[in-house]
Design goal:
Length: about 250
């Protein structure tokens, strides 16, 4: 596996980072076998379009912690953004919020993702990522609360998905401090373009290039899923730095 010492910093530097998707019910052996198939820096779990159980997520993140791999979790819906802190208490290192269109939705994601004084995430949960480095998880009084909050705010990574023409046009405004990745939902984005005969964009690639240009002088990077090696190489050539690839890629 790749060096995951501070994935957030690596994202900001624009390093090429590959992740791989996995079902949330995978046990440790299954996850280990998956990770052996490539040089992955994170593993991605979805709840927007897949069955989801919080206990499964907690167990999955526990396996990932033992294997030293960060978990990125896509929440079920934009309206569930207020629950981001709760999901993080189960062990993910990264969150993806789907179908983001407004700066208010971005503000809500940042608020519940980060601890004070950056955000308003509540302190608690024995299964939080890397908590054992700051005390004994089963003894809350032993946890160095401020040190852990500082670590989290410097290590957790937050992604929002752009899935409409409006979101693509406003990418620069949505890429607020605290957002690490602008991800794409290509199929919903196609629906959006098809609903607008006079859309300034006719293809997903045009949308990607626009967002890359909007974030060119920013530490915010662009994230995409690549189903084939050809897609992966094309996106890398375009300037995309964070890719979720298929096993073995």
């Amino acid at each position: 596996m790749a060096d995951n010492s501070n994935l957030k910093e690596r994202i900001h530097r624009g390093e090429l980072i590959l992740g791989v998707g996995a079902p949330v019910h995978f046990n440790r052996s299954q996850l280990e076998d998956l990770l052996a198939q490539g040089d992955y820096s994170f593993v991605y779990v979805d709840s927007q379009h897949s069955a989801f159980c919080e206990i499964d997520l907690e167990n999955f993140c526990g396996h990932a912690e033992q294997l030293g791999i960060p978990v990125q979790f896509r929440i079920q819906h934009t309206r569930h953004t207020y629950l981001v802190g709760r999901f993080l208490d189960l062990g993910p290192t990264g969150i993806m919020v789907p179908e983001v269109q407004t700066t208010a939705e971005v503000d809500e994601a940042i608020s519940y993702f980060y601890y004070p004084q950056v955000g308003r995430r509540s302190s608690g949960g024995v299964n939080r990522r890397n908590l054992s480095a700051f005390g004994k998880p089963t003894d809350p009084a032993s946890i160095d609360r401020l040190a852990y909050a500082d670590w989290w705010n410097s290590n957790g990574f937050l992604a929002i998905q752009l899935e409409s023409v409006e979101a693509v046009i406003n990418a620069r405004k949505l890429a607020k401090p605290g957002i690490d990745l602008l991800a794409f939902g290509p199929n919903d984005l196609r629906f959006s373009m098809e609903s607008l005969p006079h859309s300034p964009f006719q293809t997903v690639d045009e949308c990607i290039r626009h967002v890359l240009e909007q974030t060119r002088d920013s530490t915010v990077q662009v994230s995409l899923g690549a189903a084939t090696a050809e897609q992966r190489d094309k996106y890398i050539e375009m300037g995309v730095t964070v890719l979720q690839v298929q096993p073995g890629m």
